[in-house]
Specification:
Elements (H helix, E strand, L loop, with lengths): L5 H6 L4 H5 L4 E8 L4 H13 L2 E7 L8 H7 L8 E4 L2 H11 L4 E5 L6 E2 L9 E6 L7 H6 L2 E4 L11 H12 L6
Parallel strand pairs: 1-2, 1-6, 2-3, 4-6, 4-7, 5-7
Helix pairs in contact: 3-4, 3-7
Length: 178
Amino acid sequence: MNKLKAAELRTTVPDPEQIKKIKRNPIYIVLDNVLDTYNVGAIFRLADAVSAKKVFLCGQTETPPNSRIKKASINTTEWIKWQYFEDAKSAIDYLQLTVDNLNVVSIEQDKKAVSFQNVKYEFPVAFVVGNETSGVSKEVLKISDKIVELPMFGINTSLNVMVSLGIVLYEAIKTLPR
């Protein structure tokens, strides 16, 4: 395992040939009005970690170039493909037109939600995370194939969107061939 120091991480950019060789997993990540630039940058890091095909930044979500996103992403915005849409539903509509058999999974606390551990994830998949206060929009929840949540056993009733996405992503990729 290659272990880089913080300064090295922030200045590392792979060469274009290295980027071309990365096998992308059939995973799309949709940010539905995620406002915290730290979350946005960290989600780019997650996208790189699971080799997702693309990140969709929607609504009021900040987009690169942004110094805080760049810092939190440790430059992954430079090689993770991303696209901006006015709203998350438009991004999902676009994905459904361009990706055959797409499954849409929203990560949200909802009366229709099931535990993330009790779901068979089918690929290709778009994972949707929502605004830190109001969550995934009702419009997107209506068109989601599945709504998953993380069980909460303490006093706090929710987790950070980036943390929740990371847990669900790593549960889902268990079934992908290596």
